[in-house]
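Quick note —
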Amino acid sequence: MEKLRIVFMGTPDFAVGILDAIYQNNYEIVGVVTAVDKPAGRGQKINESAVKKYAIEKNLKVLQPTNLKSEEFLEELRLLNANLQVVVAFRMLPEVVWKMPKLGTFNLHASLLPEYRGAAPINWAIINGETETGVTTFFIDDKIDTGAMILNKKVEIAPEESAGELHDKLMHLGKEAVLETLQQIEQGSVQTTIQPNYETKTAYKLNKENTKINWSLPGQQIVNLIRGLHPHPSAWSNFTHQNQDLQVKIHKATYEATTPKHNFLEIIAEKKNLKICISDGYIQIKELQMPGKKSTDVVSFLNGFHFNIDTKFY
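Predicted structure written out below.
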């Protein structure tokens, strides 16, 4: 049984949950590699990654390289004398980095590989209407999310679950998967499975185009997009009001499957309900956010907003 000396690599909140599980289980963490600090928000305040904040709180050594191939960083990494690297929601590593530790470098990915390789697996599983997803640990190789799999764990996706809720569920599942993987590596009992070299579903990076609501799609697909992008980065729609073209974020909505009795994209605004007529029914908006405003529930929104004849989503 080999005592592990771990370097952890990660950046967002999802990675913090995993790092905490490793720390709480008394594994030796000799260093933490995370993103460089950068300005964020309106005031452009310098923002530290969630992983950095946690590592400092626990007095763990932090490295923040701008270039993963720089000799200075590689030397710092070698001096940590780690025999294993654990990667969660970080960036693609050069071969010189992932090959460095004796016991290898493994990654936790929030999907059941080989499906949903890429940057946004949690979002796309919901957007595509999946009813099941999970997490996979695998040894890193020279491509993205293609290495030999160590283990996976499955979980159901509830019909109304958002990406934020699934994120938290997968973080807890990820803790279990990483701890089991560490035990197997420690005991020398790892048995890997080579991934098939195909994938039918990809977790593309989210951008302005693929987060825009296409009102021509079937209602269930529209609601899946809204769920899959909540709370971040949020589905959005163009919105015309008083001769202004705006971009409105829609955070929560439901779908009513029925034969429409109104014109396509007609808005039905009642005292407590806001519905949009689509090709196969109605989308009922529950929570939305106008530009420069805070997110609000639809009842509060309707109290202070007056629709004109030219008002429309498109």
